[in-house]
Amino acid sequence: MKILLLICIIVTAIIPYFQLCIGIAKDKVKQNFATWLLWLILDSVVLMGIIAQHGDIALFSVFTAGTFAVTAVLIIKQQFSWKWFETLVTGLVVVCIIIYLTSGPYMAVIATTVALNIAGIPQIVLTYKDPKTASASAYFFFMSSSILAVINAPAWTVPDRLPQISAAIFCLIVFLLSLRRSKEK
């Protein structure tokens, strides 16, 4: 049962990255470059913290690889901008990384989980302003894989559940905001 659940986690985590990469490549989906660049850095930090704490790495291994792919496609398609808000968010993320560097892997998981949510603020704002820029199905799959990872976690510990629960809540917010497009037509 655990292996089947792990396969479901990995598959539901991979699907949205393909959806986003294809959508961005076809100019049908817009994503906030700053968010994805910061997520790439932070997913890597969370993954290192989870590894150091001997936590469940399945979800964040896929998240790190997928975030790299989306960030690369955003660069290739030149779909990026950087304004004062992104700089502010980056500053907050830097504070979280400093906490990571000065306090060890346990606090790293907590600080970078907070930073991942801070880094996601520009994406939430973009989705709120223009719901059609986000792929509802991609964020639904992200949310689903995060929930499955919570269910599959071996223990109720910070490295095993906090990043996954946080990701599920964040993705739920973006998913719900992206559904607003049908009401605006």
From TrEMBL:
Keyword Magnesium: no
Keyword Membrane attributed: yes
Lineage top rank: taxon: Bacteria
Keywords of the record: Membrane, Transmembrane, Transmembrane helix
TM stretches of this protein: 6-25, 32-51, 57-76, 83-101, 107-126, 138-156, 162-179
Record protein name field: PQ-loop repeat-containing protein
Originating organism: Candidatus Nomurabacteria bacterium RIFCSPHIGHO2_01_FULL_42_16
Upper lineage: Bacteria, Candidatus Nomuraibacteriota
